[in-house]
Amino acid sequence: MRMTSLFPAPSCLRSGVLLALSLLLASLATARAADGTLFRSLNPNVADLNQYQWRNRPVVIFAPSEKDADYIRQIKMLEQSRAALAERDIIVLSDTAPAKNGHLRSQLQPHGFEVVLVGKDGGIKIREKAPVSSEALLSTIDRMPMRQNDQD
Question: Is residue 136, in this structure, part of any structural domain at all?
Fold first, then answer.
């Protein structure tokens, strides 16, 4: 026996449920990004960052090794801001193996440690030879027109 309601849910109730589900999915996506996929090793075969264009803001970190003091300091700073990074669609890509001659390393030719922030449009927004504070990254992003449009 199939039961039907004589009183269908008002459209505002359905809208509220849809909004709640949308917010839940967004928070799950943020949690997933903050949980591990936010920090990735940069595959030496990656020739460009086109796969991230219009979706993410890559922060590419080049270092001589994973034991480099600047690299360790940079990663610690970024890890402390995981939620804020995820909220701004940032992914952190690390290349700590200069000997593998990665394509992006060859194109950008970093010397030693270097941090590069790439905007969703694919343009380089920051390029520094010393660790960049999370606050500096976030404030740079927050001034970008695309980020300001996201907040409207």
Answer: yes
